[in-house]
Amino acid sequence: MIELRNVTKTYPNGTKGLNQINLTVEKGEFIAIVGLSGAGKSTLLRSINRLHDITDGEILIDGKSITTAKGKELRMIRRDIGMIFQGFNLVKRTTVLRNVLAGRVGHHSVPRTLLGLFPKEDIDLAFEALDRVNIVQKAYARADELSGGQQQRVAIARVLAQKAKIILADEPVASLDPLTTRQVMDDLKRINMELDITTIVNLHSIDLARQYATRIIGLQAGEVVFDGPVSEATDERFAEIYGRPFHEENHLLEEAVV
Ligand SMILES: Nc1ncnc2c1ncn2[C@@H]1O[C@H](COP(=O)(O)OP(=O)(O)OP(=O)(O)O)[C@@H](O)[C@H]1O
């Protein structure tokens, strides 16, 4: 379970990324976070695993405060949280397998992994993870030889090898074409269902959010302006909230950029 209690994040320049957010996410939920550009989606996701420090409030992961955790305790909490980024964040000049094995680093002492020494169980786990995202045949390819969609699936496999209990995906499909977008979202959804991994995905597309999520959270200017099931996240409701109509994919982003 993830709990945000009165979470506020003010950037050093005074911008309020998040303003008094209160949220509870239950184990196994698949949540899409939507909102206009600059609404605070990335800030929210990055605050959950403390890539960003919040300025007020508290975030609890399975009852433990990640906000106050230090040293080993912080590392242990973070080990359970996998992050997926728009830009994949792979080491491009090394193999897919090594990239997936990087997910195991938090489970071992540092010197061992620096030498690239992983036990057989880890190698097995990495192959199992690659198999789950249908990319096992690319295990020995260099990461930069893969298409964007394949690279994102390697990033998902890395999180699986990590044995993360929570996946935070920050615009995971923003740089992918529609077909690849579907494949990556299908993978995330299948993993969520099969392994009961709590999944929070930032999306620009409300249509995509409705297709995959079970709960949608709408942000605006760092505040939660919608929190409900897909059935309530209608175009009409969103137009009402954001003060403008939208029907197409990425409409929220396009409106914001114009
Ligand atoms: N490092 C930073 N310093 C100052 N302000 C920041 C910083 N990062 C983000 N912000 C501001 O915080 C607010 C929320 O930004 P955030 O990136 O979380 O929004 P977002 O909803 O993810 O946007 P996008 O859809 O464009 O990625 C914005 O006003 C943004 O300009």
TrEMBL record:
GO terms for cellular component: membrane. Keywords: ATP-binding, Cell membrane, Membrane, Nucleotide-binding, Phosphonate transport, Translocase, Transport. PROSITE patterns: ABC_TRANSPORTER_1, ABC_TRANSPORTER_2. One of its GO terms (molecular function) is ABC-type phosphonate transporter activity. It comes from the Bacteria. Pfam families: ABC_tran. Residues 2-246 form the ABC transporter domain. Gene3D superfamilies: P-loop containing nucleotide triphosphate hydrolases. The keyword Transport applies. NCBIfam families: ABC_phnC. This is Phosphonate ABC transporter ATP-binding protein. It comes from Paenibacillus lutimineralis. The lineage of its organism: Bacteria, Bacillati, Bacillota, Bacilli, Bacillales.
